[in-house]
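Quick one - inputs below.
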Amino acid sequence: MGRPPCCDKLNVKRGLWTAAEDAKLLACVSKHGVGNWTVVPKKAGLNRCGKSCRLRWTNYLRPDLKHDTFTPDEEEHIINLHKAIGSRWSMIAKQLPGRTDNDVKNYWNTKLKKKLKNIGIDPVTHKPISQILTDFGNITCLPHHTGNHFEPSLNNNLNTSTAFIPESDLSSGITELAYTNMVMMNPIMESHDHSSTSALPFGFLSHFQAMKQDDTVPLPPHFSNEVTSSCSSSSSPLATDLLSPQYHASAQVMAPSSSPFNWSEFLLQDPLSSTDQPKEEEVFHGLLSSPANPTVGNGIQSQSFEVGSSLAINGGPSLNINKNLANDHIASSALISFVDTILGQDSEIRTALFPELLDGSFDY
DNA sequence: AACTAGAGCAACCGCCAGAGG
DNA sequence: ACCTCTGGCGGTTGCTCTAGT
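Output:
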C-alpha cells in the first residue's frame, strides 16, 4: 500500500481562516520552518488539511508578501509576461517580488482583462479585436443551418471566448455565436483562400468537439483556452499581420494614450525570435536574463524586468519589445524567421489533424 | 433603509509529476 | 511494479464588501 493520508479529509475545518488559526500557523512555521506540510496542522494544533495550511501560508501569511495594490509597473510586467508565456501565474508571480500566483491571477481576471477589453484588445491573444473583426469580414457569412446545428455545444464549450465581445460589436449585429465562431475559426481560416471557407466544415467542428471530449487526442494550439505564445503560434500575430500596415494602424487606433504606458506596445511583438524555436523554459529564461530583472528565486540571477528593455533570447538577436517593429530592422528580420517557422509548424499540425481541410477535394 | 448587482479576493477543486511505502 | 500521497499549479467558486437604485 501507499502512504497513509495526511489528514482526515472529511473532518478538517474549511473556509476562511480566523486570526487565531493564522497565529498558530505563523508560530508553527516560524518555529519549524516550511518543510513537510502534512505535519504542520498537528504541530500547530490546527484542524486543517496540510494543503490548506500551505495555501494559507504561501498566499497570505508569508512575511515577504505585499498586500497593497498593484503598481502600473507591475501591471506592465504582468501583461508582458502573459503575452509571452500565457497564464503561467506562478512563473509570472516569481517576477513580481511579494506577489503570489493567486494575487496575479486574481488581478488579471478582475482588472487587467477588463482593461484590455475596454481598449479593444483580446486578452487571450493580445490581438486587437478590430483586426479579428476585419479578418471575420473576409470570411463570408456563416450559414444559418450551421449555426442551428452547432449552437448549443459551441456555446457551451466556448463561453469564455465571447467574454471580450465589445458591446458595440454586439449591438452592431454580430451575434455571440458568430463572434465565437469567428474567433475559433480565424487562426485556421486566415491562411486559406477565404472564398473557399464560406461554410463551416461540419467534419472539422465535430472533430474539434470529439477532441475536446477525448484527452488522448491532442488539441491543436489554436484551441487552447488560454493561449501561450511560447508554445503556440495562434497567440502571435501571423506574418501577414505583423508586417501589414493595417496591423500596426489598428494597433495604434486601438490603444489610446490614457494609460500610464502605451498599451499598443503589447500587441505587436513576440519574444520568440530565433529560427531554432527555443523551448518554453528557454524562452522564459531568456526573459529572465534580461538586463533589468529583479531576482527572484530558483537561483536565477536577474535584475528588474523592465518593460521596454531588450530581450536577448537564447543567444539570438535582441528584441526591443517596446519599440515599433516597423522601425526596427533587426527585430523585423527575427520576427519574419520566427513567423516562418511558426507557419511551417502550423501547416504540419493542420495537415496532421485536419487533412480534409487542406485537401482540395474536400467538400463542405 | 432595503435591496440588488458587480467587484474583489480568499479558498477550494481537480489535475499532474514525482516520490514514498 | 504498483498504489497512494505530496506539492505545485491553473481554473473556478462563493463569500464579503461596496456602490447604485
